[in-house]
Amino acid sequence: MNRKRCSKKEFLSIIDGKGHDSYAHVSSFAIYPNSICINDTNVKKEFLAEMNKDYIYEDQDNKVYSKRFLENIHLSDFALIGLNSADFKEKSNKCSFQTMHLTSNDSVITRMIEKVTNKDLVKGCFMFDIINNVTATKLPIISKVITILQNKPEHAFNVNETNFDLESIKNIDLSNCNYLYNHRNDDYDSNNQYLECVNKLAQHIIEYDIPAFIYIMSLIRPKFLICFGNSSKRLTEILVNKCKIRGNSIKSKFGIVDVRQVLHYSYYGKNGTFEKKCISFNNAINK
Question: Whole-structure pTM over 0.70, yes or no?
Fold first, then answer.
């Protein structure tokens, strides 16, 4: 097992595989080359969240990275964590290291980072979602799943090895989970279908997302994790506090000392103003 944080090039060689299912398609770095246009009202918000393949690669087929990409990414003392990676493989340019959703919401992250006091520490840091390859626009079942995971015995979170094939994460379709959640109390069959959906996600997390999370932690060795939203924080806390490798907690193994939360970038209303999002981000970074 690695005893120290791996190098950038080693990390890229692990997560940016040649296959279409490489982990680089569900993760990214907090780099926004188009942020120079952040005050241009004629620019689409989605444009601010894009990272062109020409920015990343000199030669994409052979995974030769550009000098500017390598200079601007870093594996630091923290990483940014979302809840569920969006499946953009079919609607993007299929390039690695795009932002999570390729929507106007991601431009909020761009603007939040520009307002952070120590923005140079945040820019270029690794960012990923704790749940991967789960097709679902919304996950209202996540609270039930988190409760199930919280109540599982600690031996359910034992992992023998830190190495994990990141391209082996199974894709499951839970696009109907919002409908099942809304109709879970209609009748007996509806409730059963809802519970099947909940258990399917819980099993996916145990079988795929937990080993992937532990492996990523072993590679980047962050001191603290910054989570977008309450659900990602609750789930991350379970993994950090319950997961063990050969009987040793990953918290002590990898030196993770804290799990922090910022307001989710898509949160709205009087308590989800852009100003409050920036304040929460600043507080998390400077805690």
Answer: yes
